[in-house]
Write a structure and sequence with these properties.
By secondary structure, the protein is α/β, with parallel strands linked by helices. The protein has 4 domains: about 15-45; about 50-160, Beta-Lactamase (2-Layer Sandwich), CATH 3.30.450; about 170-330, Reverse transcriptase/Diguanylate cyclase domain (Alpha-Beta Plaits, 2-Layer Sandwich); about 355-595, TIM Barrel (Alpha-Beta Barrel). Helix content is about 50%, strand content about 20%. The chain has 22 helices and 21 strands. The protein has an 8-stranded mixed β-barrel with strand order 13-14-16-17-18-19-20-21, surrounded by 4 helices. It has a 5-stranded antiparallel beta sheet with strand order 2-1-5-4-3. Helix 7 packs across helix 8. The longest helix is centred in the first third of the chain and has 43 residues, at about 5-50. The radius of gyration is 43 Å and the shape is elongated.
Length: about 600
């Protein structure tokens, strides 16, 4: 039986313990190597991160700082480690809030920024602030208590957002708020008025005849003009007021927190005076005026869309009253606008259903009294209002663009009639048709069809006389010039209507080989041998004849006027003395009697 040796047992137990300790040491070394390797990997990950990684202990001292943090903050790791985050990268305005938040977390474990994405500003080493995107996580264990902050510099993104926002909200030419920002501010000011129980005034401002000025000085100068207008508008109102450019030469001003309309009247008059002062653009001296419409919130409208419509209606009224003035919105303007909208609707329907008719006013040869020509005058047969004259609906047709379709209908109808009358009565008979300047500048070139149509219908060009205004001759657009020359080349004759009321150059009369001047009826109405109108008529007739141009006097109503114009050598007469405008059938009866 073996002998029990206590000493040997103790030695074996110690050996076993030593073996376990050795194995444990190996295991610990392996784990340490793994931890070191993981730590190295983590450091490499942090250093290669596109975000700055900043680690901080619970006392606020920085314990970790990767290469991206060095790049965006300007501090090296050696310089900033063991410094507090509060005194290095947090702007002074946020430091109290940061300290309060730290104390709250340490006391309660609650924080509003942990595990969320926050946009805030950080402090660079050189002292400037820049926007960052921040996310913070926390490690809170017996072995480690640490905050990890992941920070991204978003300066470039914020700059891009600012550029996009500015483009969306500001006019690129004048830097004024555009329509988008104007609408936002109008809503804001209306809400502010609701709270304060005060009012605001909305001003719609449109430059008078800016298109003509723009065409004469060129678009570059026109842009400079708009910039100067913007400056003058801003200098004329308070800092709290909003000046906006909606489009082209249309501006708005929001006058906020006002108590009475008298102050708005003063502002409007000041704006008119300021804008009418001459503007020097290089060698060009430009004179501008403006028309202003005003509506009040909440007195004239409690909804901003209606407020804008009311101001626009008032501005339009200011223009129709002669321009260079302001007009407050009234209920009468609203009623007028409603009638106008209905008239536009009816006019569209009239075009679609051909509810038009041409009347013709005879033009008399003052030499022998024969009817050698007639002026076509448009009438609209309204289903409820009866016959509507051009003075009522032509301005609306021009405003809506319907003038081109209506003008085409007039031309084709006149061609059909003059062809018949030439065959039945007089092979040299001529019909005059009125045209709008808008027809001549129309890009769809409907007028270009006229020459082709006359050729297709075997109608000689001299059968049609096209009446234009003096202003058209002074328009520098090449499209107008080319069309006028094309008409002359096709044998279509040209008359200047209402001569003497506008401005035209004698060189233009020669350039386009004008056939007729029509003396405006304002000179004929009070015609007497001993007054200035007779002198002016004689001068116009003499000048025209020396240029080889024949003269037609409009608005002749008395025998004395007829006799005096004959003595002055006028070629043709037109007016109620001879005949009012009549239907085509009635004109045929007159032609049968006279010729």
């Amino acid at each position: 039986m073996p002998v029990n040796n206590p000493l040997q047992d103790e030695i074996d137990e110690i050996s076993l313990l030593e073996a376990k300790i050795a194995a444990l040491q190996v295991d610990m070394r392996q784990k340490k190597d793994i931890i070191l390797a993981q730590h190295t990997k983590l450091e490499a990950f942090f250093d290669s991160s596109i975000d700055a990684v900043v680690q901080m202990d619970f006392d606020g001292y920085i314990t970790g700082w990767n290469h991206k943090a060095e790049e965006i903050f300007g501090w090296s790791a050696e310089e900033i480690l063991e410094q507090t985050i509060e005194q290095t990268i947090i702007p002074e305005r946020y430091r109290e809030a940061h300290s309060t938040g730290m104390q709250r977390y340490l006391g309660t474990g609650e924080s509003s920024v942990l595990n969320s994405l926050v946009e805030i500003y950080a402090l660079h080493r050189d002292g400037h602030e820049f926007p960052i995107e921040l996310s913070v996580s926390v490690i809170d264990s017996p072995d480690l208590q640490e905050f990890n902050a992941y920070i991204r510099d978003i300066s470039a993104r914020k700059e891009a957002e600012t550029i996009i926002w500015n483009k969306a909200n500001f006019d690129s030419l004048t830097s004024l708020p555009n329509r988008n920002l104007f609408l936002q501010r109008l809503e804001h000011e209306a809400l502010s008025c609701d709270r304060s129980k005060r009012s605001l005034a909305l001003l719609y401002i449109d430059l008078d005849r800016f298109k003509d000025v723009n065409d004469s000085v060129g678009h570059d100068m026109g842009d400079r003009l708009l910039v100067e207008v913007s400056r003058r508008l801003k200098d004329s109102v308070r800092e709290i007021d909003t000046v906006s450019r909606l489009s082209g030469d249309e501006f708005t001003i929001i006058l906020g927190q006002i108590d009475d309309q008298l102050s708005v009247q003063r502002v409007c008059q000041q704006l008119l005076d300021t804008l009418s002062a001459p503007l020097q653009l290089d060698t060009e001296m430009v004179h501008l005026t403006a028309s202003i419409g005003v509506s009040f919130y909440p007195g004239d409208a409690t909804e901003t869309g209606a407020l804008q419509r009311n101001a626009d209606q008032a501005m339009y009224s200011a223009k129709t009253q002669g321009r260079n003035r302001y007009q407050f919105y009234t209920s009468e303007l609203q009623e007028r606008a409603l009638r106008k909208r209905q008239l536009i609707t009816d006019l569209h329907e009239a075009v679609n259903q051909s509810r038009f008719e041409l009347y013709y006013q005879p033009i008399i040869s003052l030499g022998d009294g024969s009817i050698t020509r007639a002026e076509a005058l448009l009438r609209w047969h309204h289903p409820e209002s009866g016959v509507v004259i051009p003075a009522v609906f032509i301005p609306i047709a021009e405003e809506t663009g319907l003038i081109n379709e209506i003008g085409n209908w007039v031309f084709f109808e006149a061609c059909a009639k003059v062809k018949q009358w030439r065959e039945r009565f007089d092979r040299s008979f001529q019909v005059s048709i009125n045209t709008s300047q808008l027809q001549w500048i129309d890009e769809t070139a409907l007028m270009n069809q006229w020459i082709t149509h006359m050729r297709d219908q075997a109608i000689d060009g001299s059968a049609i006389n096209v009446e234009i205004t003096e202003d058209l001759l002074m328009n520098p657009r090449s499209r107008i010039t080319n069309r006028l020359l094309d008409f002359r080349a096709a044998g279509i004759q040209l008359s200047i209507d209402d001569f003497g009321t506008g401005y035209s150059s004698l060189s233009c009369l020669r350039q386009f080989d004008i056939d007729y001047l029509k003396i405006d009826q304002s000179f004929v109405r009070n015609l007497d041998q001993n007054n200035n109108d007779a002198v002016l008529c004689e001068a116009m007739i003499t000048m025209a004849h020396k240029l080889g141009i024949k003269v037609i006097a409009e608005g002749i109503e008395s025998r004395d006027q007829d006799q005096l114009l004959r003595e002055l050598g006028c070629d043709f007469g037109q007016g109620y003395l001879y005949s009012k405008a009549v239907s085509a059938e009635e004109l045929e009866d007159l032609l049968g009697e006279k010729n």
